[in-house]
Amino acid sequence: MKNFTKCLPWVRPDTNFAAMGSTDVIVIRELSKVYRQGEINVTALNRISLDVHEGEFLSLMGPSGSGKSTLLHIIAGVDRPTSGECRVQGIDLTRLNESELADWRNQNVGFVFQTFNLIPVLTAFENVELPLLLTRLKGKQRRHQVNTALELVGLADRRNHLPRQLSGGQEQRTAIARALVTDPSLIVADEPTGNLDAHSAQEVLEILQSLRRMAGKTVIMVTHDPKAAAYGSRSIHLEKGELASACADANESDGTMDRAPRLCHAEESNEMRPA
Ligand SMILES: Nc1ncnc2c1ncn2[C@@H]1O[C@H](COP(=O)(O)OP(=O)(O)O)[C@@H](O)[C@H]1O
Ligand SMILES: [Mg+2]
After folding, report:
1. CB 73 within 8 A of CB 79
2. Ligand 1 centroid vs 75 CA: distance in angstroms?
3. At what angle do helices 198-215 and 168-180 cross, to 10 degrees?
4. In terms of Cα–Cα distance, which of 232, 226, 257, 261 is closest to 247?
């Protein structure tokens, strides 16, 4: 994998990645989401509390309908909870109005979807450039960032290809470049390997892992595949809108009472995480 700090010169150059991991970048307390469908209420999330450290790669697991996407969408600022608190980088997302939330999202979050969601009539370059068109960056800087992001995912030579001229794995890597190009601190991925063969899935997971390890990104990935989840630094499981199992993380306990439990930690376990 490439050297991200060298390749991404616009990435906060003074970032001390070694010092990361001690700050809770996401703090969730008693978070609930209830969807109303006519007379029926569907509780998608039921009083979830969770902390995520800066620079973690969190795998969010659970059966279909357990609330994984709902939780991801609330953390990423595309959906709002019915009650409870969701603070990301110290900002209580529930207090932002729609336009503030959209601005926050554009600056801080990169999205990767199961179905890639590339625009079919745009080239790989143009797809990756799209989020930058919402910024004030000049054309030359935009081109530089797009080319660098495409290089990072190993697709510099495919920049003029349309999505239909790319394999599934290449499409997803283009989507990762698009998620990265604005240098967001948080990358969220919903079943990013769900439509990929094993080899392409591995490439995508290694890139996501490198974003965390080499560029200090916080990555949250929804998956129901334990092999994919093992690439993360920690896995948590949702069951019917609740965190399924809680085990205190002795290594990281700071003794304070208001911390949410750390769940099923797999940090630095060579057994759990493919090299
Ligand atoms: N927009 C919606 N309107 C009504 N119900 C929804 C909506 N989105 C999700 N749900 C319901 O919330 C629950 C959790 O959904 P979701 O977060 O998509 O689960 P998962 O991603 O784990 O499969 C499911 O019962 C689902 O049907
Ligand atoms: Mg889902």
Report:
1. yes
2. 15
3. 20
4. 261
Q: Tell me: the pLDDT tens digits for 121-163?
A: 999 999 999 999 989 999 999 999 999 999 999 999 999 999 9
Rounded Cα distance between 102 and 273, Å, is 34
Q: pTM (2 decimals)?
A: 0.85
66 CB within 6 A, ligand 1: yes
- Coil vs helix vs strand at 57: strand
**Nearest ligand for residue 61 CA:** 1
- Structural tokens at position 216: 């200090």
Q: How far is CA 255 from its chain centroid?
A: 28
Distance 153 CA to ligand 2 centre (A): 25
Cβ-contact 141, 182 below 8 angstroms: no
Q: Which of the residue ranges 14-18, 158-162, 178-182, 185-189 would you say has the lowest mean pLDDT?
A: 14-18
Pocket of ligand 1 contains residue 70 by CB under 6 Å: yes
- Digit-coded pLDDT (tens) for 29-70: 999 999 998 999 999 999 999 999 999 999 999 999 999 999
Report how far residue 66's alpha carbon sits from residue 1's, in angstroms, rounded to the nearest whole number.
34
Q: Where do the domains of the chain lie, and which CATH numbers do they carry?
A: 4-18+55-69+97-235+263-272 (3.40.50.300)
